[in-house]
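Lab manual, section 2.4: Encoding a predicted structure.

Procedure: take the sequence of the chain (585 residues), apply the prediction step described in section 2.3, and record the output as structure tokens. A sample record is shown.
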Amino acid sequence: MILSALCEYYDRSQGNLAPKGKERRELKYIIVIDQDGNFSRLEDCQIEKKKYHKFLIPKGVSRTSATKSNSLWDNCSYALGLSEETFLRQRSAEEEKKVRNNISHYAAFVDEAERIAIMNPESADLKTLLLFLHQSEDVRLAALQNDTLWDEFRKSIKTANISFRIEGRKTIIAEQDFKMSDAAESASGEGATAICLVTGNRAEPVLTTSATPIIGGQATAKIVAFQVNSGYDSYGKSQCANAPISTEAEFKYSTALRTLLAKDSKNKAFIGVRTFVFWASKETEAATDVEDSIFSIFSESGTDDPNAHVNRVKNALRAMFSGERMPELGDKFYFLGLAPNAARIAVVYWQETTLGDFAANILRHFDDMEIVDTSKNPRPYFGIYPMLRAVTLDGKVDKALPSLPESIMKSVLSGGRYPRLLLTSCIARIRAEASDKDVKYPVSVARAAILKAYINRLNDNNKKIDIMLDKENTNPAYLCGRLFAVLESIQYSASGLRSIAERYLNSASTTPAYVFPTLLNLSLHHSEKAGWGEGVKAEIINMLPPDGFPVHLDVEDQGRFFLGYYQQKASRMVDGVKDGAETRD
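Recorded output:
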């Protein structure tokens, strides 16, 4: 199913993805050679910081410990026989081994270039390249070191992929269309066919599958692989002949996955230690809107005006459910979670649904997280990273428990309950900051939004909490939170202090029956200056159940308490009253 969906993505992207046998890959440098095969100059392929020009070149080989060269492009160890160890005056045994490896790597690169030249005898460019490659290392290195870009080139010699261009040509050698092989490689080596498990058609299967760049690294790993003599071999078959995949299907899904995982891809997001990629079965305007929306929610990258960006996302998604876009809502949409695992990529999450359901779930997340914001400079808090910053120490996302980011993501996508860990983490941060004199507003807008979203998705009979203060909500925990905010406001109006929040907020949110009698007695000292507060205080107390304040509040009710506290304070700001009721800096 996953491989079929990836093949579908390749088919929908025809013209944008690489054709069979090719791939689009960044190269850092091009070596320009004159017509006599001599070094001319280095060309830097950098477009902007950490971004390089992509070339359509022969697909890279899968390498483990074996020496195997790419065709007409590669890293410096293969394409030039150079590595960082080459320039060390004194080398360890391991470093000496790497220098020896350079020799075998370079020989493999030259052999591959000679093989292609034999198959394309009419190519003058290949003959010129071989003249350069057959020069001694000393000659090539001396020419490189005299180039003005040599110092920068040497700094990146460990990671730089390079190719060659003949002086006067517009394209590099690796981009030219050469005959590369006589026949496609097959599982038997004799043109055997089998039923492809991806397409269902009879075709020639691959012997081994391609590797994909591991998420966040330079190495490669496979999403489909068979280990030799690992117990999977049966009926005399080995490697991929045990689960045949046609060469065409293997190329399509590997190219699609490599594109989705590319550094500049907007169809991927890093959530915790996982990487998630997402795509639609068809390339439509609705599909683009959904893909952009997911990238906005799950990406940590910002925009010049994040609020305007979030509003554009919400408006685009809501527009999908009206008029001409309705037929597109039935198109399939996929979400794939991956994690690097040694030499393989582990699939940790897979969801297949429709564009309509995806859009509806994302809009539900927006609606659930919507809450009154009285700050001077409102900031969006719908994305996963703002949510994580709200519930972690010092707002550092890397301090979140490993399972939390992925759990939040799954809740957003499925429309199901948010993880209980999100609730407990949020309350823990509120408690930790409630008694801190340097923190004015422990219940920030982002934390209040999280509490509202979590509570409103619970499958119980409790009243859903609104965006603004709900004066009709009779939940005892919610009323206690409101009452505490009123008592705090009364104290501030009378004395300019908010000390009851520092001393009693935590205990009031867990054991109201033991704390509120004391707070109510203290408030009597401020009754003459209370004004507005006394009336609201009496109104809230009259709404409490006959048996009075709850003895103990569980975690969910603690969330309701803090929501009532936040919304009561925010309502004063909405009314234009500045009595210390701000909800965040």
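Check your result against the sample. Residues 183-189, 579-585 have pLDDT under 50 and may be disordered.
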